[in-house]
Design goal:
36% helix; globular
Amino acid sequence: MDKDERDILDLLKDELDFIEKGGYGRSVRTPWKETSAFQDSLTCINFGDPSRARPCDECHLIDFVPPEHRSDHVPCHQIPLNNAGDTLEELELRDNQSKMETAVKDWLHATIERIESERAG
């Protein structure tokens, strides 16, 4: 199994930039199609590949997924995003795009800060 060779810090920063620029809003070309956080951005190792050829355990985000959810169909949607343990899956089910995006942005900010701090030593 080959782990994604991209740097996790760069991926998370790019994801944050993507969200802050409205990345998960409805597309003008396909307004009927819902977007899926993490899966519909360059963060996903299968982005643009409808066959999802690469297994999710090759993705850096798997490191943030609780072990009991790592074999789920979309494991990155089981990442606890806050102290309450809210996940993308739960927030998407509540159908509150704004709350979901805020939770993801907050998680990204905190995770980026933690990784930068760890690397600074």
